[in-house]
Structures are given as structure tokens and as C-alpha cells.
Amino acid sequence: MPAYLALVLAVAAETVGTSALQASQQFSRFWPSVLVVVAYALAFYLLALTLRTIPVGVAYALWSGLGIVFIAVIGALVFQQKLDLPAVIGMGMIIGGIAVIQLFSAAATH
């Protein structure tokens, strides 16, 4: 599996797991709690595959940055959690940082 595909799938699994964590209501609901464990296990497995090719710092920057943005959007759309202007600006900066890594960093494998 190509490293960046594994990383995108890892971020997706982590996003599902974190969304399920909110839905589990502190692990008091069974099926969302099961989904948390399965999704996080898959996410970490896929992240481990990614680390065969992509340096850990770059992979983690992409993982955490994309995860923050995806979870914030899901929180706003699904859980009606409000985002204020500083939050939106900060997430824009995160996306900008990801773009800089991908476009200009020699540490990022292309």
C-alpha cells in the first residue's frame, strides 16, 4: 500500500474513532465504544505502515493536522459545536502548514 494512501486511511480511521468517542458518551454506549477501539486500532496500524516510508515528524504533522480539521468540521456539522473566528483562522494555518510541508519540505517523501 502506498504510504500516503495508508496515511489518509489512518486519518480517516482516527476521525471515525474520535467521532465515535463523542458518540459513546464516555464509553457508556456499547456500539460507539466498540467502534472507538476498532477505529483507533486500525488507525495506529495504518500509521505504523506509513512510518515505513514517511519520517515520523512529517507523518505525525499530517496525521494530527488533518485530524484536527476533520474533527472540528464533524463537531460543527454533526454535534453542533460552534467554531469561532480564531478557531477557523487557526485551522486555516494548520492547513497552510500541511501545504508547506508537502510542497516545499525535503523531509516529505513524494
Spans of at least 5 consecutive residues with low confidence: none
* Overall mean confidence score, pLDDT: 93
Give the radius of gyration: 15 Å
Q: Secondary-structure element sequence?
A: HHHH
Structural class: mainly alpha
Inertia-based shape: flat
Task: Kindly state the number of beta strands.
Answer: 0
Proportion of residues in β-strands: under 5%
For the biggest sheet, the summary is:
none
* Tally of alpha and pi helices: 4
Distance between the termini: 15 Å
What percentage of residues falls in helices of 4 or more residues?
Answer: over 70%
List the helices and strands and how they pair.
Elements: H1 3-23, H2 30-50, H3 56-78, H4 85-104
Helix pairs in contact: 1-2, 1-3, 3-4
Question: Which terms summarize this structure?
Answer:
single chain; 110 residues; mainly alpha
Give a description of the structure.
77% of the residues lie in helices and 0% in strands. With 110 residues, the protein is mostly helical. Helix 1 runs antiparallel to helix 2, helix 1 runs parallel beside helix 3 and helix 3 packs antiparallel against helix 4. The longest helix is centred in the middle third of the chain and has 23 residues. The model has no long low-confidence stretch (mean pLDDT 93).
In summary, what is this structure?
With 110 residues, the protein is mainly alpha-helical. It has helices at residues 3-23, 30-50, 56-78, 85-104.
